[in-house]
Every structure is written in structure tokens, then in C-alpha cells.
Amino acid sequence: MMSNLFLIFDPSTSSNFSNNWWSLVLWFLICPYFYWISPSTFSISWKKLLKNFFQEIENNLKSYKTKNCLIISAMFIFILCINISGLLPYVFTSSSHLVFTMFFAFPLWISLIFFLIINKINMMMAHFVPLGSPIFLSFFMVIIETVSNFIRPITLSVRLMANMISGHLLLHLLSSISMFGEIYMVLSLPLMMILLLLESAVAFIQSFVFVILISLYINES
């Protein structure tokens, strides 16, 4: 029995090197479909998914900002592969750590802030006091808008991390029931399969929500 439930998220497997972080490069092992004689069902489904995703991103972005679709799509594929691979047995889930999620959220947010300060400082300041706001509420509106802008990367990072951690904790708790006997393992197995399917959906949805929010932030800049 583990002394701490959150030890399953400990990336260290030795005192010298955190080998679990090698799971970040597992998605490189996926062979592209054009290396096969005929595309598989998985390849066709993946191609349709990316096509619909590109369309969704293009609808969110302004016409002169569609050049950002490539980096947003690459980020979506990377995070999705990490989330899905983390559901496999004995594979470390990197997206359950803030160091992973903040690595994507903070640099993008800081770059957008610097872009607005350098190129669109007047538009940036105008957003702090929305049009039609009462004069006596202007001071409070500036504070509220400033706080909301500063917590964007934090909420973006914590949302992905918290959703991945919660599902993995439930799976770990249900798997621990099997230690009490075979009858408990048989009873918990259907529930674990349903929860695993739910976690697969969560892995996709959270990857999609992460990049959609980033595209909205880019669209505002």
C-alpha cells in the first residue's frame, strides 16, 4: 500500500534521472499514414479529425491570423498524444504536472502581452474599460480586467492538469479495490472500463479546449 496517493504522479524513477519524462517522445513512434501502401481506418479517421480541427481553428481566428493554425494544430496533436498515452499502463502522464502545462501557457501568454504592448498599446488599454461603462466604475473595471488577464495562463494550466489528475486518481482508486479479493476485481472491472472510455473523451476534450482558448487569446491580440 502506498503511503501517498499522489505518488503515482511522481516522475522520478531513480535518484539520478527522471526517466518517466521520456514518455513525452512516445508520440514520435506513431508512423505517418503515407508510409503504408494503403491508409488504415485509424489514418483516415485521424485525417478527418485534423481536417475538422483546422476548420474550427480557422473559424475562430481572423483572416490575417490564420497563419497561427500550424502551431496551434501541432500543440493540439502533441497534448492529445500525451494525454492518450498516459492512459496506457505504466506510462507516465506528463500533462498531469504544472511544469508541463505552464510550459505551453505562459510563453504564449507573455508573447501575446508583449505583442500588444509593442504594437497595439491603445487597443490594449481600451479593453480595460469596456465601452459604455459608468465613470464611477472605471477604476474597478480596470482592476477586474487586469486580474482576469493575469490569471489566464494559470487557469489554462490548472484546467488541463486538474482534469487529468482527477481521472487518473479515480482509476487508481478503483484498481486498488482488486487487492481485497477477486470478487471485488470482477465488480470493479466494468466500472473501470466505462471510466477509461470517459477518460479517453476527457483527454481529447481537454486538449481541444486548451488550444481553442489559446486561439481565442490570439484572436484578441
Automatic annotation (TrEMBL):
Transmembrane parts of this sequence: 20-38, 69-92, 98-118, 125-144, 164-187, 194-218
Domain of life: Eukaryota
Location, primary (coarse class): membrane
Mode of membrane association: Multi-pass membrane protein
GO terms under cellular component: mitochondrial inner membrane; proton-transporting ATP synthase complex
Subcellular location: Membrane; Mitochondrion inner membrane
Keyword terms: ATP synthesis, CF(0), Hydrogen ion transport, Ion transport, Membrane, Mitochondrion, Transmembrane, Transmembrane helix, Transport
GO molecular function, one term: proton-transporting ATP synthase activity, rotational mechanism
Alphabetized InterPro entries for the sequence: ATP_synth_F0_asu, ATP_synth_F0_asu_AS, ATP_synth_F0_asu_bact/mt, F0_ATP_A_sf
Family stated for the protein in its record: Belongs to the ATPase A chain family.
Protein name stated in the entry: ATP synthase subunit a
Organism: Dermacentor nitens
Gene: ATP6
